[in-house]
Design goal:
The structure is a homodimer of 342-residue chains. Chain A is an alpha/beta fold. Chain A has three domains: 44 residues, lambda repressor-like DNA-binding domains (434 Repressor (Amino-terminal Domain), Orthogonal Bundle), CATH 1.10.260; 132 residues, 3-Layer(aba) Sandwich (Rossmann fold), CATH 3.40.50.2300; 137 residues, Rossmann fold (3-Layer(aba) Sandwich), CATH 3.40.50.2300. Helices cover 42% and strands 15% of the residues of chain A. The first copy, chain A, is built from 13 helices and twelve strands. In chain A, the strands form two sheets. Chain A has a six-stranded parallel sheet with strand order 2-1-3-4-5-11. A six-stranded mixed sheet of chain A has the order 7-6-8-9-10-12, sandwiched between helices. In chain A, helix 12 links the parallel strand 9 and strand 10. At the A-B interface, helix 4, helix 5, strand 2, helix 6 and helix 12 of A face helix 4, helix 5, strand 2, helix 6 and helix 12 of B. Strand 2 of chain A pairs antiparallel with strand 2 of chain B, so a sheet runs across the interface. The structure holds a DNA duplex (30 and 30 nucleotides).
Chain lengths: 342, 342
Amino acid sequence: MKKENITLKDIAKVAGVSTATASLALAGDPRVNFKTKKLVEEVAQRLQYVPNEIGRSLRAKKAETVALIFPNTPHNAFTHPYFVQLLEGISEVLVQNSFQLLLSTTPSEADEAAAYDKILRNRRADGIILWPASIKDSNIPKIIESGFPVVYLGKWHHDDIVTIQRDDFGGAYEATEQLIRNGRTRIVHLTGPLDYQVSIDRVEGYKQALQDNKILFDPALLVEADFSREMADAAVQKLHEESVRYDAIFAANDRMAIGAMRGLRALGLSVPQDVAVIGCDNIETGELIEPALTSIHQPMREIGRLAAERIVAMLTGQDITDKQTMVSSSLVVRESCGTLKN
Amino acid sequence: MKKENITLKDIAKVAGVSTATASLALAGDPRVNFKTKKLVEEVAQRLQYVPNEIGRSLRAKKAETVALIFPNTPHNAFTHPYFVQLLEGISEVLVQNSFQLLLSTTPSEADEAAAYDKILRNRRADGIILWPASIKDSNIPKIIESGFPVVYLGKWHHDDIVTIQRDDFGGAYEATEQLIRNGRTRIVHLTGPLDYQVSIDRVEGYKQALQDNKILFDPALLVEADFSREMADAAVQKLHEESVRYDAIFAANDRMAIGAMRGLRALGLSVPQDVAVIGCDNIETGELIEPALTSIHQPMREIGRLAAERIVAMLTGQDITDKQTMVSSSLVVRESCGTLKN
DNA sequence: CTGCGTTTTTAAATCGATTTAATTCATAAT
DNA sequence: ATTATGAATTAAATCGATTTAAAAACGCAG
């Protein structure tokens, strides 16, 4: 039932020319006679010829494919609320440029290194879009510094690496300041794991905002969690048991913000009256819960688009003038942060 | 900076054998002498040889790759809440079996046909996992009946096609019956676009449940929407303007259920007292809103896993005994449907 | 030392396209 | 009629691996 595929050879034979001519004709090379070109095109059309990309790739030494590497760690899964948006942005641009998208994860942390190495060398992809993992993960620097075309979606310490970064520092600063502006002074920062750059940057932004507003940083208010709702809930419980006093929470993602809000409710505290809350990511759920969650919006789709544009540019030999791109986030103010409506 | 890749030729030269021997040695062919084998392996190890998959694919006529085709229609985007879970299930199994995952979307509806055709013929993927689109979409039957290895994630009318299906009929039946059991008799079914099989099946399930409970089907209670929150909200508004009386809503997805709940609230109606609501998909948000949403849980991760297992089996020449697989959904009862706590 | 059967090794073909360098062909100039 | 010139075509190499069929090397008996 499965019909054999039509190859260039078939086209050449039917058109009565050599494969060389057929190839050149289809490529629109000016050397081939107009009539011959038309003939070959007609035959190709009629036989529904589709070039075998594998053959083409082998010869051209490129696969017209970009791999999205998303390190598979407990904190970094596809379930990340905005992973899908990133994917959409990337996909959109790649499709426009006739690149394919290979999705790469690793079976387990153990063979992570080998798996990445393979991607880099087996030539299935010409370039890589790389999502950050823990700063302790030694595979990340290995990939970035391999010389393979990479767009890194985070901060990197060499400015010859092409990166797309969010302004995590600025976002955290803005969120913290918003809480301060609303009269809060004892602001808990519920951070993600501190071996993630994003967490570190947000802590910095938080601290800077405190300092600029002459509020002393209290280490008791810096609580490390794991991005999960459950742990945020538990953290609020723990703060209560330790009788820590606070009037606001800035959580490093919306899941934790939501978890914290549930914890607060369980303690009989109301949001935003007793405790104001701000999250990060601006996931859809935040808009639908009560009170609606104030959050830092991350333009993930835009980041995906930019990353794809950059890698395509690199692979098509264009010059990248500004290798580092910073996209700014914005605060979406809703009820949970206690801002008065004007 | 970018070092040239090590090829089999390099290994052969360093080991002082022919490429044939090198290849055979690495493949563990018993014809090659044990000492030679060890030598070649040592050299490959030392030079960090990784076979070029493109070359291998060309010769083997297979790419060790599966494409996930997700038709890009307004109702069918990556943003589909459980797309990510599907992806996780697929990815997990493919990685285990050393298959790569190619993500395919189409630039626009216009060149959809050409794009699919290309995937089928350019040999970048050996098999396809296909997500349903509108029943009017002529590309779907084209792909399914091409003879190319396909696992279709829906119902198909020939039983020689490998499918993984959800029990949409059963799910709708169960949801409707739950509402009836809770004393509701005028149940609105907020359906998705009726050119989708899933919508048709759910309408059937809904009708059957009504009939089995001796409730007459009222066409005025069947409202077609587009899966969006906004349109569900508007639909509730419209029902009100038309003075349609009802005491329950069964929505074809959670987004619409949530939109409907917002619409009801705007009209001053309370859920579940005035109107009981059940959705489909069991998205995370449903658990977090108030009242918490009763919903039909879809085991998307499981579906992804099964689909990947099937396609891998097909591509590795295994026999598929049961070509059609039905996974059952389950009702997750929360507050919105008005079930009394026991 | 020859001949025969085994083990090992390797030359060469293959997969499907692209591209270079060489060749053929037609036309115009001498 | 011959040659130079340019246009059009094609043979052959190439990309990197696998695999078949043939050759080489080896061991051992006669």
